[in-house]
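Hi all, long-time lurker, first post. I run a small reading group and we've been trying to get comfortable going from sequence to structure in the token notation. Rather than ask abstract questions, I figured I'd post a concrete chain and ask someone more experienced to write out its structure so we can walk through it together at our next meeting. Sequence below, copied exactly:
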Amino acid sequence: MTGIYMIKNMINGKRYIGKSKNIKRRWYEHKSSSSMQYSDLKHDIKKFGIDKFKLEILEECPEDRLDEREKFYISMLKPEYNIALGGQGSTGHKVSQETRKLLSQKAKKQWDDLPEYEKQIRIKNNLKRPALGHAVSQATREKLRKANLGKKQSQDTIEKRSRIMKTSMLGNTNGNKQVVRLDDGAIFDSIKQAAKETGIHPSGITSAIKGRQRTAGGYQWALVKCRD
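-- Answer (accepted) --
Happy to help. Here is the structure in token form:
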């Protein structure tokens, strides 16, 4: 089914509106816990459980009207989980100061909610790209080191850390290249997924990665570097 859908959090009433050429598959992607991409919706699904969320089909429509109808519903309903205005976005899309502040606050909250070992892995990945200017201070690294001294880790934590480390070292094996939004460390499975989740045009993200433009959607982007 092609059309516009809404996901509603039955605990706090927050909503997310999206579009898809295959809503059933898109719903499965939202439910999947394998993605490393973090957002308020993803955070709450992990926090409350997928059974506390309800999918509703707002409208079936042809593919060439998806952008238009998504923008309409986001504008009308003002869903709490959405940041972008919907549609495909555009290269060089400018973000208002108010939106930048909101995104910054959300990114900080998402970062604070990450377990310490995952923060270290993301910092390590970003340190491999010094030319992009995303350096981490010695004080920050020392703080992370001290925070983990003397901590006993459960078997589940150890296994989870191992899986994430393997992912960060080996990269994606399905042919897609993972991309990272450097401003908050959010990782997406591909440029296409990043564009879909953020509303930023994929060509803009590609241009930012290749250095043809400084940012896309107000953010810096890079490929997740695989270990040789």
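A couple of things your group might point at:
Residues 89-95, 126-136, 167-175 have pLDDT under 50 and may be disordered.
The chain has two domains: 3-77, 97-223.
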